[in-house]
Each structure stands twice: as structure tokens, then as C-alpha cells.
Amino acid sequence: MTCPAPRDARPLAGAAGALLVLAAVLITIAYTGVLQQGDLVAAAGLAADRIPGVTVVARVLTEIGNTVGSTVVGLVGGAVLARRGHRAEGICVAVVPLVTSVVFTVLKRILNRARPPEDLQVMAVANESLPSGHATMAAAAWTALVLVLWPRLAARARTLLTTFAVLWVATIGATRVYLGVHWVSDVLAGWALGAGLAVAGVAVLAATTARARARG
User: Fold this and answer.
1) Where in the chain are the domains?
2) Could you count the other beta carbons within 10 Å of the beta carbon of residue 6?
3) Mind telling me which residue stretches traverse the membrane in this protein (predicted)?
4) Closest by CA position to 41, among listed 191, 177, 192
């Protein structure tokens, strides 16, 4: 790992704000039903074209990438960073998924959007749909991890980590739609919300670190 230079919190705060505004817009559009017809067409089309082998793989991946799995990513990543002497970064990586879990759960309860019909679902899920918890948590955990590690990694490691994170987050969101347990708009809103909360958390980390260095 390389030694990182001090990080400017302002661009991060701006990016976080933009992502959270996008999440709010996507949630509003999904909640008001503007995309309901498109959501239904996509869900019905996928249900009609499912391939048994792909469905098995999707079920396995969606379980690995569930909300608990994303929380574990944050807690383990945070613990490793803290153990290596990067306590503030470790706390950030660990706390972001925990805060995100509270946020998306509260939103689900408030919005109370129904899941896709049971006849489109591979596995029966009946609780609130918007935003997708899997998509939100995956985006939050992996965005936080990439951003925190980014200044400390060489170029090749950055590319590998970022590529894996993007593919993993995209895959988990896609499995939720493929398995018929979420609308496409649930997943899009979840990705934006999770990424926005992660960037906000890293912005707070950068601001706190800058203040500590200024005092020290």
C-alpha cells in the first residue's frame, strides 16, 4: 500500500449529495408508479425466460450477497484496516453498512411498496420492496471499501478492486430482479442510495481526518 495524501472532503460531499438526490428522485418515481408498467413488463419477461441453471446460480449469489453478507464485508474490512493501524478508516468501512441498514429499513417501512406478484417470484418474499435492501447494502459496503482503500492502493490493485466491486454490486442487484423479488426501479434506487450513503461516510472521514491533522 502507498502512503495517501490528505483528502479533500468537498468533492466527496458534492458527489454524495448528487447521488442522494438521484436516489430521492428514483425513489419518488418508483413510489408514484411512473415506472410501474416498465417494471411489470421487465419482471414478466424475465419470469418467462428463466433458465433453470441460471436460476440456481442467481439464488446462490443473492444469498451470498444479502444484507448480512454486505454487513460482514464492512465489518471484516473495517477490522482488518483497524488492525493495520488505520482505525478511522476501519470505523468508516464498518459503520457505513450499519447506518445504511437503518436507513433503507426505515424507508421500506414508510414507503411500503408491494413486491412483484407471487407468480413472478422464484422464492416467496412478502415484505416491503422499495428500495432493494440487497442492492442498497451491496452498493454501500463496496463503495465505502473502494473509496477508503483507493488512496492506499497501487494502480493495478485499484483497477482489480473497483472492477470486482462494480461487477459484484451489479450482479446482486440483477439477481433480485431476475428472481422476481424486486422491481427494476427498487434496485436502481437502492444502488444510488447505497453509493450516496457510502460516499457521504467517506466525506465525513476525510473532513474528520483533515481537522485532526490540522490540530496535530
Assistant:
1) 10-209
2) 11
3) 12-31, 64-82, 91-111, 131-150, 159-179, 191-210
4) 177
- Burial string for 89-113 (b: 16+ CB within 10 Å, else e) reads bbbbbbbbbeebbebbeebbeebeb
Instruction: Note the pLDDT of residue 90.
Output: 96
Identity of residue 173 = G
Dist CA 216 CA 211 (whole Å): 9
With beta carbons less than 8 A apart as the criterion, state whether 141 and 71 touch: yes
Looking at the domain covering 10-209, what would its CATH class be?
mainly alpha
Grid cell listed for 158: 485499484
CA angle (40 as vertex; 34, 42 as ends), nearest 5: 110
pLDDT along the chain (216 residues), means of 10: 63 96 96 89 91 96 96 97 95 97 97 93 90 98 97 95 98 96 96 98 92 72
Q: Is the pTM of this model over 0.90?
A: yes
Q: What is the pLDDT of residue 65?
A: 96
Distance CA 10, CA 140 (A): 19
pLDDT at 3 (0 to 100): 47
> How far apart are alpha carbons 183 and 160 in whole angstroms?
30
Q: How far apart are CA 152 and CA 80, in angstroms?
A: 14
Q: How far apart are CA 70 and CA 68, in angstroms?
A: 5
pLDDT at 6: 57
Cell numbers found for residue 151: 488512496
